[in-house]
Amino acid sequence: MTHELENASEAFHEMMRRTMESFTAAWARGDIDGLMGLFGDNPIYRTSSGAAFEGSVALREGLSKMCLSPQGDTPSPAAPTRMHFFDRSCLTYWTLKLANGDTQSVVDGVDVITFDNQARLIVKDAYRKLA
């Protein structure tokens, strides 16, 4: 029985990994519909800047603001550097490059993500390192 549970856990972690790979690719494209398709019912997204988006309507609006700059282009994506999976959660470490006038700032952060039974995101909490 223990072996069966380990296999089920490994299979679910693989599903979560695929969801996160799809999330990263959709974020890099600025694909709001693609991102929305990766979230479960009643999603919650708390950003590292303190904004919170609860529910699908608020999440879509928030993602639209985060994924497109005021000029309408897609910002540089936060590139995951490591992911660790535990039960129905994931820690993903990322680096984001932000334009800061004529220079570029590098921000490191971590997301704590909770998944539903279908490996869809239901809670995403983002934290960034302050210099």
Question: How many β strands by DSSP?
Answer: 6
CATH topology call: Nuclear Transport Factor 2, Chain: A
Percent of residues in β-strands: 35-45%
Summarize the main sheet.
6 strands, mixed
Provide mean pLDDT, rounded.
Answer: 85
The CATH architecture can be given as Roll
- The gyration radius over C-alpha positions equals 15 Å
What oligomeric state do these chains adopt? Answer: single chain
Distance between the termini: 48 Å
Overview of the structural elements:
The protein has three helices and six strands, in the order ααββαββββ. 19% of the residues are buried. The chain has a six-stranded mixed β-sheet with strand order 2-1-6-5-4-3. The mean pLDDT is 85. The radius of gyration is 15 Å and the shape is globular. The protein is α+β, with helices and mostly antiparallel strands and 131 residues long. A hairpin with a 5-residue loop joins β1 and β2. The longest helix is centred in the first third of the chain and has 28 residues, at 2-29.
